[in-house]
Amino acid sequence: MARSRQFYINPRLMHTKFANQCLQDLKAQGRNDSVFRYAYTALSFHLVGALPTPDLRRGILDLSFDDVLQHLVNASFVKGVIFQLSVDSPSGWITLILKSIKMLGFEDSDHIYAHQLAAYDRLIMMELDKYGWKAATKFLLSIVCIVRSTWNYLICQLRGYLLR
């Protein structure tokens, strides 16, 4: 038993390291599609199991959904509409990231969440304005997004429960 201590791997610490690496890979210039794809698909998984460290907080605040989505549009592994309402879509991914941020337990989780949510809202409104959407249509869409977001939150909570 005493000898095995040197081989112990702290799962939360490893999730923190991987989450930080995913955040760096999502922000990297000249991204490799396969590295980007891993970072994109694994970030929410690692955030749910991570520790709330200062480096992770900085990485989350620096994360630009706009940059990630721009890369997705040009990535070889993604085809189709950007703003679909499913967990596999970019909007579903962003919802999972937002919910994971809330679960991390930073002292200012609400501030970090609000910061990223506002950035996401601006992104959606810019996308909708391209098509001349009326206020009533935006309102109905936001209700659908809230319902879907709640579902994604429950999935994220279950994942967090299973990881701990």
Walkthrough of the structure:
The chain is an all-alpha fold and 164 residues long. The protein is 71% helix and 0% strand. It has helices spanning 11-27, 33-49, 54-62, 65-74, 90-103, 109-129, 135-163. Helix 1 (11-27) packs parallel to helix 3, helix 2 packs across helix 7 (135-163) and helix 5 (90-103) crosses helix 7 (135-163). The longest helix has 29 residues, at 135-163. The radius of gyration is 17 Å and the shape is globular. The two termini are 23 Å apart. Residues 80-87 have low confidence and may be disordered.
How large is the radius of gyration? 17 Å
Q: Supply the number of helical segments.
A: 7
Q: Structural class of the helix and strand makeup?
A: mainly alpha
- The fraction of residues assigned to DSSP E strands is under 5%
Query: Major sheet: size, sense and barrel closure?
Result: none
Q: Write down how many β-strands occur, each being a DSSP E stretch of 2 or more residues.
A: 0
Q: Separation of termini?
A: 23 Å
Spans where pLDDT lies below 50 across 5 or more residues: 80-87
Listing every helix as H and every strand as E from the N terminus to the C terminus, the arrangement reads HHHHHHH
Query: What's the pLDDT, averaged over the residues?
Result: 76
Shape: globular
Considering DSSP H and I runs of 4 or more, what fraction of the residues is helical?
over 70%
